[in-house]
Amino acid sequence: MAPPTCLEVRTYLANVAAHTPARTDPGTFQTLSERGAVSGTMDAPSLTPIGQHVLAELEVRSYRADALSLDFVADQLTRVLGDLDRVAKTAEYFLAELGPVVPQEALPLLRPVAIELANRRETPEDLAEEFRNVWGGAEVMGGHPRDRLLAAALLHAAEAPMDKIYSPMMATITAVREVAGPGAPAVTVAALLELGAGLEGKPRLDAYLALRSTTRTEEGAAILAATGRPVEEVRASRARLLERLVQGRRPTADDQVAAGYLAVCGAELDRHLPRVETLIKALGDRFPNPVVAAAVLSMADWLSPAELVNWLDKAFQIAQTRKLAPTRRELSALGLALVLGLPPSEFATTDRTRPFLTHLADLVAVNAWVYGELVPAGPTSGPVPAG
Fold this sequence. Notes:
This protein is mainly α. The protein is built from 19 helices and 2 strands. 64% of the residues lie in helices and 2% in strands. Strand 1 and strand 2 form a beta hairpin.
């Protein structure tokens, strides 16, 4: 006997829940009864709390799971949940290992960085040692520790060789501070500009300077410049996305950040903006303002908005169980970081790897904007190198 499909199970459980059960294959009823999803008899079945949970899980995944067997989807859910928990456990390791080397002012921002490291699913000991080496180079670049921490995360994600990138970064940092002031996140800006240019390229400092007048944040201007696209083209793309995002209302600061992120990632008006709108409503009060988080999730377009929020809630619970952060909104932000690390290959039949620049934009969005805004920044500390 062939195992029941998710469509068969979902339809049957929905009918049982509505007290209008249709006849089903005896094997399907037996399977669901043995798993505790229904009780009673075939002629008078009742939905159990387990059955309610199974129905909810199948409904949110119906767009991709209906044709699959119940066993296949159940195994997939178990596998991915186990993987998420292992990532969260690895993040615990990084927090313990790297906490002593990060200054107190930046320590809260180590949490999303730890998840970024754990998302690589590589040997934790080697990753921790690699990150210490990158941090050692970023630590002497001056400015606020949280700026240096994000820059180190970007450099580590790009596997940038510190011996080759240090000198050009220092020149760019100096140029940024001359324009934006000593309190600017110049190390992060320089990292984005240098990584966008590549080791042999010239950072688009002029483009960054031109874009500063129309972006909310220095990091936003830098990553827009790092796309390599002409300034006017980038501005026009961001303006179109912002106009569609706000739909006639006055843009907020978060709208501006979200539009910049979407422009960097190459979002399409008719494909991704409806997803953003749906996600904003679905995220509710999980974030102080859900616009940026919705924009970030929208680009994971191999999953529906509803399933993304479902995974976000599962990731939140895992982060909470692991005690990765002290507040509900911080846990939501860490849940977002965990969801961004889900391998697309688990859900998509074609290669849907997140592009390199989108990955860098994710790091900036989560660390500087979503999580960073939950943790007030103290005054700039550390020496500002001259020259």
